[in-house]
Write a structure and sequence with these properties.
The chain is of the alpha+beta class and 140 residues long. The protein is 26% helix and 44% strand. The chain has a single domain, classed as Alpha-Beta Complex (Nucleoside Triphosphate Pyrophosphohydrolase). Strands 1, 2, 3, 4, 5, 6 and 7 form a 7-stranded mixed β-sheet that branches. The longest helix is centred in the C-terminal third of the chain and has 16 residues. The C terminus is likely disordered.
Length: 140
């Protein structure tokens, strides 16, 4: 069974609004699925999950990120395969978005607006988990 589980990783990418200082969460739009989600993707063979999560953030959003606390792992079935995604809170520290074939848009939203915009219910729970992680879960 472990061979059939797709291992993936991602981040709940956040920043402080340049205008108000309020917490904003980055969501990505994937035209292939026409959905809004947190940046994530499959791990490369032998890749450390946190390294993979930060790679996916950079590939999908164009932002470099400073990782914080690990968030709950999300497991679900997609296209007939079981998928396990490990997530971290991560602060966007540099970069800018350029549309690409995988992600054509990103949005920076308040946590409440992000919960509404996210396509999958299990992604919404990660927004709730970010609160405590962002306020004290920074790695030292």
């Amino acid at each position: 069974m472990p061979d059939t589980v797709v291992q993936a990783a991602g981040c709940v990418l956040w920043r402080r609004s340049p205008l108000t200082g309020a917490l904003e969460i980055c969501l990505v739009h994937r035209p292939k699925y026409d959905d809004w989600s947190h940046p994530k993707g499959k791990l490369k063979r032998g890749e450390d999950p946190l390294t993979g999560a930060l790679r996916e953030v950079a590939e999908e959003t164009g932002y470099g990120a400073e990782p914080g606390a690990e968030l709950p792992t999300v497991c679900y079935s997609a296209n007939g395969r079981f998928k396990r995604v490990r997530y971290w809170a991560a602060e966007a520290v540099s970069g800018h978005f350029t549309p690409n074939t995988e992600v054509d848009r990103i949005l920076w939203l308040t946590p409440d607006a992000a919960r509404i915009r996210l396509t999958q219910f299990h992604d919404r729970e990660l927004v709730d988990a970010l609160g405590p992680a962002e306020h004290g879960g920074r790695r030292g």
